[in-house]
Amino acid sequence: MSATVTETEAAGTIKLVAAYDEKKHEDASSPPHQTLSPPMGLTSTQYKYHDYLPVYDEKTTFPALEPFEFTDRGLAADKAKPNLLSPNIPGLQVTKLTPSIGTEIRGLQLSELDDAQKNELALLIAERGVVIFRGQDFKDIGIERQKAFAGYFGPLHIHASGDPPSVISRVRL
Questions:
Q1: Per-residue pLDDT tens over the stretch 107-132
Q2: What is the rounded average pLDDT for all residues in the chain?
Q3: Which of 31, 33, 77, 127 has the fewest CB atoms within 10 Å of its CB?
Q4: What percentage of the chain's residues is helix, strand, coil (to nearest 5)?
């Protein structure tokens, strides 16, 4: 299942172990595509989201998370959530999964939320514990927009467990 591959960087050679089975991520049904820079020497005809597949690097280290000031965005939200759960949003479907925990939302792209909607999202998550969003475009919007979305809610840090080097190098803070 896992293959060991060596990738050369400016700082030297890094030994990476793929944490997935490449055969499960072959995409023979779709036409070849071009990735930014195929990791681990793979060609551009590989799985479309290959850059997101995890590898393990036991050598690279990252600084520990430092204490930081936190502002709960949900405190700035309108408790009625008129921007996030508006009946005027076409195709919006909101389903409570249980009376007190869990909500499923369809027809809303998280990547397109404005600040008022993000504040209401933070409050909804605090109230419901689990909120599931179907049909999101995060895999296609790029790492910078993903970072901008997540950074709205607080400081970002690198979680060094199984992240592909192509993602880590673009996530550096």
A1: 999 999 999 999 999 999 999 999 99
A2: 78
A3: 31
A4: 30, 15, 55
Nearest to 51 by CA among 30, 68, 64, 34: 34
HSE value, Cβ hemisphere, 13 Å, CA-based, for 77: 26
Give start and end residues of each alpha helix (H) in 56-160.
Answer: 115-128, 138-141, 143-151
Q: Mind listing the pLDDT tens digit for each residue in 129-159?
A: 999 999 999 889 988 899 999 999 999 887 6
Residue the block writes with tokens 């192509």: 166
Beta-ladder partners of 122 = none
- Supply angle C-alpha 104, 105, 109, rounded to 5: 140
Quote the CA–CA distance of 165 and 170 in Å, as a whole number: 9
